[in-house]
Design goal:
By secondary structure, the chain is α/β, with parallel strands linked by helices. The protein is built from eleven helices and five strands, in the order E-H-H-H-H-H-H-E-H-E-H-H-E-H-E-H. Strands 3-2-1-4-5 form a five-stranded parallel β-sheet, with helices on both faces.
Length: about 200
């Protein structure tokens, strides 16, 4: 019987949508497109997830690619993205229902130190018992070591635990570590059925 569920965050519990996050502050379509492309460029965010770059370094790099009139907007978008993450429909209710059944729910995410420091402001984090953030622990999915680290921190047995992620390579690595895996495609009802039949 499943005792625990470890969720990924972006594209599992919430949508990580640069256009949405920029649109909260910028209305001009051309400016918004430029800011989304620059501020959320994976060249920065992969390093943020790894914890190998500081927020100020990212913003300084962004300024070299943006007109000065957009620098303030870039800062505002960057320092508020944690609050602008729409919940994926049905996921909050699923977590609450799992907890009501006695299932422990956790988070394991490749995500920045900035997010970790402000995670209390992010959607659904308060619903989870504990979290592992890649930039904080110095490990990243799909490295098997991060799954061992998470299970140890959470105090859970892999064989009693389901890991839910939107990336197949991460799920495969978790399964190789003894967890049960589920590749999430945005369908909360299908995930609910899977978990409730375990």
């Amino acid at each position: 019987m499943i005792q625990n569920v470890i969720f990924d965050y972006g594209m599992v519990l919430v949508r990580f949508d640069p256009a949405y996050m920029v649109g909260a502050y910028v209305s001009d379509p051309a400016d918004a497109a430029l800011l989304a492309a620059v501020v959320f460029d994976r060249v920065y965010w992969d390093r943020l997830d790894a914890g190998t770059v500081e927020d100020e370094e990212v913003l300084a790099a962004c300024r070299t690619r943006l007109p000065e009139r957009l620098w303030e907007a870039a800062d505002t978008i960057y320092y508020n993205w944690v609050r602008n993450l729409p919940e994926i429909a049905g996921m909050g209710a699923l977590i609450r229902d799992l907890k009501a059944r006695g299932v422990r729910c956790f988070l394991l995410s490749n995500i920045s130190r900035y997010f970790a420091a402000h995670s209390a402001e992010a959607p659904l984090i308060a619903e989870l018992e504990d979290c592992v953030f890649s930039a904080v622990c110095g490990l990243q999915k799909p490295d098997p070591a991060i799954f061992a680290h998470a299970c140890e921190q959470f105090g859970v047995a892999p064989f009693e635990t389901v890991f839910v992620d939107d990336r197949a390579e991460n799920v495969a690595s978790a399964e190789a570590c003894g967890l049960q895996g589920y590749v999430f495609d945005g369908d909360a009802a299908a995930l609910r059925e899977f978990l409730c039949n375990r």
